[in-house]
Amino acid sequence: MNEDLAPDLTEEWPEPRANPDLIGLEDAERILLDAYLSGRMPHAWIISGPRGIGKATLAYRFARFVLSRGKGEGASRSALFGDGLPNDQPDSLYVSPNDPVFRRVAAGGHGDLLSVECALNERGKLRTEIVINDVRGIGSFLRLTAAEGGWRVVVIDSADELNRNAANAVLKMLEEPPAQALLLLVSHNPGRLLPTIRSRCRKLRLRPLKTATVADLALKYAPGLSLSDASELARLSEGSIGRALNLGAEGGLSLYHDLVGLLDTLPRLDIPALDDLGSRLARAGADDSFQAVSDLLRWWLGRLIQCAARKETAAGEGVTEEEWALLNRIAQSASLDRWLEVWEKINRLLSRADSANLDRKQVVLNVFLTLENAART
Q1: Between residues 11 and 34, which one has the greater pLDDT?
Q2: CB 50 within 8 A of CB 238
Q3: Residue 292's domain spans which residues?
Q4: Inside any domain, residue 227
Q5: Residues 262 and 345 in one domain
Q6: Kind of pairing, strands 113-116 and 44-48?
Q7: What is the pTM of this model?
Q8: Backbone phi, then psi, for 336, in 5-degree steps?
């Protein structure tokens, strides 16, 4: 990969707790606001949707709003359970970055907000799951009287990472929620949550951002991008600004062009080009590039399955004419069942690359040889 093709993010992408902006999710924001203003707001929400679209940003935006209302402005127990209404009618969840509540939430220092995420283990490395010790304090936190006379709020980001014991502990909080308590569960895949957790939460499913919105945000946070590159990143990101920025930072467009060029040689792969790609992705420090290629491969394979299943005669939304021609040619070289087998095998290979610490170059070679074997049939 040519590192010169990876633009610098000259305007820092803010953490969800410190991001004052919410773009493209106005409908979801309105649902939360209406629930608050109704005086009958559920005590727990699952905010779900694809990665990188702003779920955690929305959760912290809602938390700030609720905390900023304070005592006597819709934060009382009566307002939570339906016996009263707020004194005013705001038209959004916006809280100014100059507000003391915003600053304390951004700094992680608000006494009535508890954030639960994956913590470090005994060796100082970030865990891949949220364990019982991470959630043990939620119950006592929520049962305390709010320091500022209003709400106690817990944000779990993400709830998908709760292990079994931690999930059961959270379930107990949901079964008997204290008054003036609000739990916001961020989830990329709510199907992974316990059914009993899902049944006790109000569900708010966020849609992917519009392609134009992602392109505009990419230009804002990566001004070194050209308009055409921002548009292509937006197309490949499937409505996720987080994914678009990650791809841009890792030279994802250059990697994608290399990837498509290699796929274009099927059913007889360009072995020297494949070897070169595998060597680049196996280098020390290329973890993010390998992840970018893995994501792009999954994106491309998903389109291949759609093409094989629908037998489309023209390029669909999000696919260029050139990509469609390549996808259509390769899709016709094997049956749909065969491509589904390929999809499952390649997904297993890519998923095990990190979990089993496999040799990345060998994984790349195996992935493309799997594609070649299918295309030759």
Answers
A1: 34
A2: yes
A3: 250-376
A4: no
A5: yes
A6: unpaired
A7: 0.86
A8: -60, -40
